[in-house]
Design goal:
By secondary structure, the protein is of the alpha+beta class. The chain is about 50% helix and about 15% strand. A five-stranded mixed beta sheet has the order 2-1-3-4-5, sandwiched between helices. Strand 4 and strand 5 form a beta hairpin. The longest helix is centred in the middle third of the chain and has 23 residues.
Length: about 230
């Protein structure tokens, strides 16, 4: 690969990441993208694949010590430091996040937590993952909708719960129209999600519809019966 081809390939990798994040990347492409910042003038795809062969998985590459990384031919000190830094940075991030976890113990706290996220001009569905202490593990937008409807994908909700090892979830979406009453579709999908999550021993604590001026809580309205698990 000549210098022009190499420059173009690296730029395409960075543009993909900028547009879609890492979801479309294979493991060797993740490493390749990282290595481009440590090794400026070399095709690093073979090195990325060599690291995966040596350590067996992407996580094992990040967990390897600087010395172990440098034992792989082609990995210099700068590249080894960068890969090890990413692992230590993630560990530091997780510690910091755990030390500052917010709890949601009632509807008022849920509304206060959700409003900054769901105040959007189009309908969006958010999933809040909680642990057994009602601490927020994560909040993720899993679906974008149109101005007046949203299509919920149960698999995506379940994936959030499993990813964060949640014991409970709160769903929330906004009604930009300002009418917070649930639609028949809202009620139907809530029943479906509660049934699926219950089978997985994950509680659906509430589904909250929010607009700038109002809210509707399925639990408060009796459409989610927590006593039935």
């Amino acid at each position: 690969m000549n210098n022009q081809d190499l420059k173009g390939h690296r730029e395409r990798l960075r543009q993909r990441f900028s547009s879609t994040g890492l979801d479309s990347f294979q493991d060797h492409e993740v490493l390749e993208l990282i290595l481009t910042y440590a090794i400026p003038r070399k095709d690093v795809k073979p090195l990325a694949k060599a690291l995966l062969r040596e350590f067996g998985s992407l996580s094992a590459v990040f967990e390897a010590s600087i010395e172990m990384l440098q034992n792989v031919p082609g990995v210099g000190q700068k590249a080894a430091l960068l890969l090890n830094l990413i692992f230590q940075l993630f560990s530091r991030y997780e510690r910091d996040r755990r030390s500052k976890r917010r709890t949601i113990n009632n509807l008022k706290e849920a509304i206060e937590f959700l409003k900054p996220y769901v105040d959007k001009p189009y309908e969006n569905l958010w999933t809040v993952a909680l642990n057994s202490k009602n601490e927020v593990l994560a909040i993720e937008m899993i679906q974008k909708g149109s101005v007046n409807r949203i299509s919920v994908i149960p698999r995506m909700v379940v994936e959030v719960a499993i990813r964060y090892k949640a014991t409970a979830l709160i769903l929330s979406h906004n009604h930009p129209s300002g009418n917070c009453r649930p639609s028949e579709q809202d009620i139907k999908i809530t029943d479906i999600m509660k049934s699926i999550l219950s089978y997985l021993d994950i509680a659906l604590l509430d589904h909250i519809i929010i607009s700038k001026a109002c809210y509707y809580s399925f639990a408060e309205g009796g459409l989610i019966d927590l006593s039935k698990g």
